[in-house]
Amino acid sequence: EAGELGTDMGWEVYAVGGFVRDILLGRPNLDLDLVVEGDGIAFARRFAAKLGGRVKAHSKFKTAVVILDDGQRVDVATARLEYYEYPAALPTVELSSIKMDLYRRDFTVNALALRINPGRYGQLVDFFGAERDIRNKTIRVLHSLSFVEDPTRILRAIRFERRFDFQIGGQTMRLIKNALSLKLFSKLSGTRVMHELQLIMNEEDPLACLLRMQELGIMEAIHPLLSLDKERVQILTELVKVHNWYKLLYLEPPVVPWKLYLLGMTMGIKRDQIDQVTGRLHFTRREERDFFQLRDQIGEALMKLMGWKEGRSRLSRLYKILHPLPVEGILFLMARSRKEYIRRNISQYLARLQYVEIEVNGKDLKNIGIEPGPIYAIILDKLMTAKIDGRAETRHEQLNLAK
Ligand code: CTP
After folding, report:
1. Interatomic CA distance for residues 186 and 403, integer angstroms
2. Rounded CA gap, 117 and 125, in Å?
3. What is the pLDDT of residues 372-391, one digit of tens each?
4. Residue 253, preceding bond cis, omega within 30 degrees?
5. CA–CA dist 209, 192 (Å, integer)
6. Sign of CA dihedral 297, 207, 233, 275
7. How far from each other are the two terminal CA atoms of the chain, in whole angstroms?
8. pLDDT tens sequence across 284-308
């Protein structure tokens, strides 16, 4: 449809970037990026009208996002057609602007385009040897200033390398080391570093990326306190396992990967130093407060868990330890615990305990003649404890207990 519309409007349209790369790799990718040799915003408007959807346009960048009615997002960018006048009687040449568009990108594997106009549909446009690099499993930059222009590409290189099990090419690796020795990382804003870290934590195997970063001295370059020692590697290994286990079994509540892994990356950093890290990563006041609070809560919960044993009336104690924590905190405790029975009971909490509800409410308490007041919270809490410990499972038993 997009190709036909392009031809109707007289413009070449290409699918580009990760979408094309993933087709060649045989991996699923639902994020379609289009480049139009013409007016991308006008194209996006017609496209949305034709298929049913909304458009968000950024006229400054000549880009638009089409959100189709089925939820599918299509990013549309403009590649300007540029005409160069040659002196003397030579003809005006039209420079292929898709080439310029692709040349500005990070790696050859991301600098592929696929023609989608009818008649040329499916033709691969590969100016920089991307197909060969994909075959050889190599991450390669397009030019030697790539990392100087944008040092976050160093983290992107590592992320793609580990995700696809590729190798960063020799010259590209030299350019990375050169960029690091020029301390380009220290010039990067905390917000941008944090954004890239978050993308890394969203990967299937974040630890592989973090280890590669450590090997290249990037952890230190971000902040010396983030250097991965043996203890942190160990906890991060457990966190990956626990996280994968959780993803396999549960959809709710969802885990925010960076919150989970940042706990592991900052393990052992003292209270009076941790703000150096959150400061470097440009946390907002609020993010900082939430993160410190989570670390404190975990510390407290760890102390309590050390004294926790299985047995009668014990499940409600566990409930009280875990209930104030967000899911990232609970998974962290699971990863930290060496004792099998603690892991097993935390798993019980996630599967069942956290959802326990009692069959009695304030109205019921009023009906049995208890005067409303702060006492209600205490009674309801006691009933919850009783239910969790199996002492008052039914409404009848709970009402009796309340009396
Ligand atoms: N890009 C770039 N430099 C950056 C970020 C992005 O050149 N610092 C280019 C890349 O060539 C990429 C395109 O912009 O193909 C879109 O970026 P993004 O959506 O992050 O890349 P994907 O390849 O789609 O990555 P992912 O598979 O992780 O979604």
Report:
1. 65
2. 13
3. 889 999 999 899 988 888 88
4. yes
5. 17
6. negative
7. 70
8. 999 999 999 999 999 999 999 988 8
Atom of ligand 1 nearest to the CA of 31: 24
Protein residue with least CA distance to atom 18, ligand 1? 18
Q: Which two tokens stand for residue 11?
A: 């413009």
* Residue 146 CB–ligand 1 contact under 6 Å: no
**Residues 320-351 pLDDT 10s:** 999 999 999 999 999 999 888 899 999 999 98
Mean pLDDT across the stretch 87-95? 55
Please tell me what DSSP assigns to residue 141.
B
Torsion sign over Cα 376, 378, 381, 387: negative
Residue 90: pLDDT band (50, 70, 90) is: low
Cβ of 152 below 6 Å from ligand 1: yes
Among protein residues, the one whose CA lies closest to atom 19 of ligand 1: 18
CA of 288 to the centre of ligand 1 (A): 28
Contact 139, 168 (CB under 8 A): yes
Atom of ligand 1 nearest to the CA of 160: 28
- Which atom of ligand 1 has the smallest separation from the CA of 153? 8
For atom 26 of ligand 1, which residue has the closest CA?
18
List the one residue out of 320, 326, 332, 321 whose CA is nearest residue 384: 320
Per-residue pLDDT reduced to its tens digit, 227-279: 999 999 999 999 999 999 999 998 888 999 999 999 999 999 998 999 999 99
Whole-number Å distance between alpha carbons of 249 and 345: 16
- Ligand 1 pocket test, pick from 104, 108, 110 with the greatest ligand atom count within 8 Å of Cβ, gives 110
Instruction: Say how many C-beta atoms besides its own lie within 10 A of residue 327's C-beta.
Output: 19
The CB of 110 under 6 Å from ligand 1? The reply is yes
> 391: phi > 0 → left, psi -120 to 50 → alpha, else beta; which?
alpha
Residue in the structure block whose two tokens are 């960029």? 179
Which pair of tokens denotes residue 65? Answer: 């996002």
Query: How much is the pTM?
Result: 0.89
Q: What is the ipTM of this complex?
A: 0.96
Pocket test for ligand 1, best of 103, 106, 134, 204 (most atoms within 8 A of CB): 106
> Encoding tokens for residue 273?
């130093």
Per-residue pLDDT reduced to its tens digit, 53-69: 999 999 988 899 999 99
**DSSP helix/strand/coil, 118:** coil
Give the chain's count of helices (H) and strands (E): 21, 11
